[in-house]
Design goal:
EC number: 2.7.13.3
InterPro entries: HATPase_C_sf (IPR036890), HATPase_dom (IPR003594), His_kinase_dom (IPR005467), HisK_dim/P_dom (IPR003661), HisK_dim/P_sf (IPR036097), Sig_transdc_His_kin-like_C (IPR004358)
Enzyme class: transferase
Shape: rod-shaped
Distance between the termini: 45 Å
Oligomer: single chain
Pfam family, one: HATPase_c
GO molecular function: kinase activity
Structural class: alpha+beta
Length: about 650
């Protein structure tokens, strides 16, 4: 079962990844063929050129292929010139640059400035769209790029196509990140509002999950080039949002992980969580100081927020993957679901971080957001299962509590009746016997005329019936089990059959019995017969004419199981629940003590009895006793 669910979840997540848009291939691949190469000239502070004409006439230009773009700055380089030979194109065309790495960009076409952008923050990924005119065919497009970051240059992805088509692509290129991020922020807000209704036991894990989802939204929004492209003047706010979200997300993830799986071997998860909290606090302080000083410590802060925290993230995700591999051996479905989501997220994050550092920090992180989506999906599935499980648990607890209260009330009633029965048995039986004796003497002294009613005999019979009721009370109060033996069920049922068959024949029914001789229990023979006769007698009376009472027995799981089923009128749930209660009976004549005594006898013999019935179909009683061969020879039945 666990393996099937594991496979289903894996296939669902794999299908989602197949239908997700490929960030690296969101633009037409055929458009790159129109510009296959360009040239770049690096500048230092000492040899910077002011205008493109001077740059075009200078030496030091390097050829760059579109398949292998160079965006890592040489040592001491602070800016660069790039020139691109435009191919022939038709009317209403434009050129779309997917990845330009720089803080300040100026684009010249035909010697005139056609685009200019300056950024004071350190987000250096730009997307630029330039309209083209017919007379620009064959001209050189010149760019001047400046940056204090480690990246500077032109990346992959240059489209020359219809300007209107490119405008639509330009407008929605990174819009999905904003939609996803806003959705996660909204979900976290709703969770925060709902947290006021939770008790303390669920509040910790709920808030930890909330503070995972909230920064995920901040990460998606803060890292998306969409806002930097269209609202670049607020870039420092977006970058601060990304950093703060990262500082909140990493320790929250470890807290949530620790709440689910524990502290790990020698408390390694707990120690790493403390390290994350300490470093995140230090990072927030460094961010505040860098902002207050107008980016005076930007190089140091870049090391804090990118280089070193990336190493901590690698260690964190590797630790998570190792622990999750161990958790997958656990057959618990919740652990498997969460392990899949965390494993996908951690694996994608580790792969992208490794690729980022292997490419000298020129690789654009893109797949991590889909790893986060897979992680959140697993959390949603897990939360749904937990809510469903809690709902079932509440129903089970309510049912158990109701049964417990019913059993408690029944026990209290039984205790009262036991005390009353003992009192009646001792205080009433003797006067009844004296009265019976006196009536017998009076009967002998008086001659009863023929064809007249014998009132003495009627009175004596009623006294005998009262004595029988008192005996039932006494049996219920304290069933006598002085003589306890190993009983062969086949022999016991043979004796019961001899007693009960005449009654069945009289009622127009019949008995079908199948009891093997190998079944043995520990108990008192006379009391067992009394209990069985009571149940079978009730089944025969329920036939209301023709019908059959089937009796069969077998051994199951160290217990002897006896079934007594009839094809009578059956009972509804209301009557079925009240069976065994004192004075309850559905017969026109009866005290309700027979089944009460039967329940008591079976209980004292360490057995259980259950009834199931359907109106118009019949009733079946199932009795279970411990098998004799699994009871120690010196064991005694408790009274």
């Amino acid at each position: 079962m666990s393996l099937n669910i594991f496979i289903r979840i894996f296939l669902i997540i794999a299908t989602i990844f197949l239908i997700l848009p490929n960030p690296a291939g969101a633009y037409p691949a055929s458009a790159d063929s129109s510009i296959s190469s360009w040239q770049i000239k690096w500048e230092t502070k000492a040899d910077r050129l002011a205008v493109p004409d001077q740059a075009l006439k200078a030496d030091g230009w390097q050829d760059i292929q579109a398949s292998e773009p160079a965006v890592s700055k040489p040592e001491h380089a602070v800016s660069a010139w790039i020139r691109i030979k435009l191919p022939e194109f038709g009317k209403n065309q434009g050129v779309f640059f997917h990845s330009i790495y720089a803080q300040n960009i100026t684009v010249f076409l035909g010697g005139e400035e056609v685009f200019h952008s300056e950024r004071k923050h350190w987000f250096d990924l730009n997307r630029v769209l330039i309209p083209l005119e017919n007379y620009n065919t064959g001209q050189e497009l010149v760019m001047h790029l400046e940056s204090q970051t480690d990246r500077l240059g032109l990346g992959r992805g240059i489209n020359i196509s219809d300007y209107q088509d490119l405008m639509r692509l330009y407008a929605k290129f990174d819009l999905l990140d904003i939609i996803l991020g806003s959705a996660f922020v909204f979900i976290a807000f709703v969770m925060l509002v709902c947290s006021v209704f939770l008790d303390r036991n669920l509040l910790k894990i709920w808030l930890a999950l909330c503070f995972i989802i909230l920064p995920i939204g901040g990460l998606l929004i803060g890292y998306s080039p969409f806002l930097y492209t269209f609202y670049g003047e607020y870039g420092f706010i977006y970058q601060g949002m990304f950093d703060l979200s990262l500082y909140l997300f990493l320790p929250s993830l470890m807290i949530f992980f620790e709440l689910l799986f524990g502290s790990g071997y020698r408390g390694i998860v707990k120690h790493f969580r403390r390290l994350q909290i300490a470093y995140s606090s230090f990072g927030i302080i460094a961010l505040t100081v860098n902002w207050a000083s107008v980016y005076a410590f930007q190089h140091f802060y870049f090391f804090v927020s990118v280089t070193f925290i990336g190493m901590i993230m690698l260690a964190q995700f590797i630790l998570i993957i190792i622990i999750l591999v161990r958790q997958l051996w656990n057959r618990n479905i919740d652990s498997i679901i969460l392990s899949i989501g965390l494993a996908i997220f951690a694996s994608v994050s580790v792969a992208e971080l490794l690729k980022f550092y292997a490419s000298s920090k020129t690789y654009d992180l893109s797949w991590w957001k889909w790893g986060l989506v897979a992680f959140v999906l697993s959390l949603i599935v897990l939360l749904g299962r937990r809510i469903s499980y809690q709902h079932k648990l509440i129903i089970t607890y309510s049912r158990d509590l109701e049964n417990y209260n019913s059993e408690l009330q029944r026990s209290e009633k039984m205790e009262i009746i036991s005390q009353l029965a003992a009192s009646v048995a001792h205080e009433v039986r003797n006067p009844l016997q004296v009265t019976r004796g006196m009536l017998q003497i009076l009967e002998k002294r008086h001659v009863i005329a023929p064809n007249t009613e014998n009132f003495y005999k009627l009175a004596i019979d009623e006294l005998d019936r009262a004595s029988t009721i008192i005996t039932d009370f006494l049996t219920f109060a304290k069933p006598q089990m002085e003589q306890v033996h190993e009983l062969d069920l086949a022999d016991e049922f043979k004796h019961v059959e001899g007693i009960i068959v005449p009654l069945a024949n009289l009622q127009g029914g019949r008995l079908e019995m199948s009891v093997p001789r190998s079944l043995r229990i520990i108990g008192n023979s006379s009391k067992l017969k009394q209990a069985l006769i009571n149940i079978i007698k009730n089944s025969i009376e329920a036939l209301e004419g023709s019908g059959v009472v089937k009796i069969w027995a077998y051994e199951e799981r160290e217990q002897v199981v006896i079934h007594i089923a009839d094809s009578g009128a059956g009972m509804d749930e209301r009557i079925l629940e009240r069976l065994g209660e004192p004075y309850f009976t559905n017969k026109t004549k009866g005290t309700g003590l027979g089944l009460m005594v039967t329940f008591r006898i079976i209980e004292v013999m360490q057995g259980t009895i259950k009834f199931k019935s359907q109106k118009g179909v019949g009733t079946e009683a199932m009795i279970r006793f411990p098998a004799a061969r699994y009871i120690e020879t010196n064991a005694k039945v408790s009274i």
